Amino acid sequence: MTQAPAVHGCPIDESFDPLSPDFLADPCAVMAALPREGRPIFFAPSIGYYVLTRYADIEQVFRDPSSYSAAVAQAPLVPLVPEAQRILLAGGHKPQPSMVSLDEPEHARLRKPAARALSMKRVTALVPVIEATTARLLDAVGPAAEFDLVAALAFPLPANIVFSLMGVPERDFAQIKHWSGYRAALGWGRPAPADQVEIATGMAAYRSYLRELVDAKLLEAGDDLTSDLIAIHRENPERLTQEEIASILFSLSFAGHETTTGLIGNTVRRLLEVPQRWSAVAANPSLIPAAVEETLRYDPSVPVWRRVTTRPVTLAGVNLPEGARLFLWLAAAGRDPAAFGQPDDFDLRRPDAGRHLAFGQGLHYCLGANLGKLEAQIAVAALAKRYPGLLLAPDQRLAFHPNISFRGPQVLRVRTE
Ligand code: HEM
To answer: Which of 366, 375, 380, 406 to mutate to test the pocket of ligand 1 (most atoms within 8 A of CB)?
Structure first.
């Protein structure tokens, strides 16, 4: 793609490509090879972004929304062909397609009602549902000696929870999961022109499905988050329109699904990688919340997020112009020695793991952080109880979806005996 060249004084790394097979397989190896102390910022021509690696700089960006806009958070990394652009716009999928890439005041209009509907009360009420769904999914594994943890649990659990929270009928779950896969490729991958039209068509259908869901709930409310949002709309239709409700659902259905699948897969992987870790957790389940938190620091399921400068700034010692696109490498921030002691050790007793930036910070701080962590904790607890001797199946090469922002093994084979 055509890029503005890097500004004077900023190192350039021609070889850095976060969508290359080597990077996708092992981003930590790429991170370890960087001259970290001397490279808090560099320009990556492969994507046209300035990469930030230090915790303090990334935190500064998150904390200053007037200098760093969220507008690029979901921007395609490659220019879309005109036909795909046309289909997306006609389907109501704008260049800043939902809450996470809007700035104030548009962002707050959506965030406030979404936060109200995703209250702690609603999340707490989900505990028995998450436990029952986990048990049902694990029952379905039966007496298998080996199974794929992602297909059996990490993928269906968060999807089922967030879709039922939204009030989506169960018969439509598979369709929404399918559309979500398109969404990761569109905003965070490098889809070929031939695939872009199919993706755009799927995205328009997804948007239209969500508008119809809102229409259906207007006629017949249920005990779900969509109906809570409709109640807010009825209090004051100007305050929250029906179109905005569909937009919030678009945010939640994706954000509440791929991210948590990745978190469960990454947590189980990191615990099983060292069998003593798994047995420690199985023997002492009170360690599980710490295990999830440490995974968010050590191997986050959203390893990268994005911002763009709204004015000239000095960041990590480099003067950047307005419009500079920033690749906030959250996974690198979790390994920053200036922020965490012995950052490359996975430590179940790390006192400050929860300081990670895996959920962002500030105005856009993840609305589903509590729900995502809860689901991962319940999933790991149920697995450890059933299979205290669980092992990683030998000789597997993990594969990851080719996108920059959502990371977890696509398949994780585990042995029960
Ligand atoms: C468990 C793993 C999860 C991770 C690692 C994660 C990560 C993130 C990150 C990095 C952001 C952007 C923050 C920023 O721009 O400053 C975000 C925003 C968001 N997340 Fe999550 N998320 C997770 C789970 C969830 C769940 C379960 C839901 C909902 C059910 C959710 C809903 C949202 C929403 C709606 C936003 C946009 C908030 C805004 O723009 O104000 N996330 N998340």
So the answer is: 366
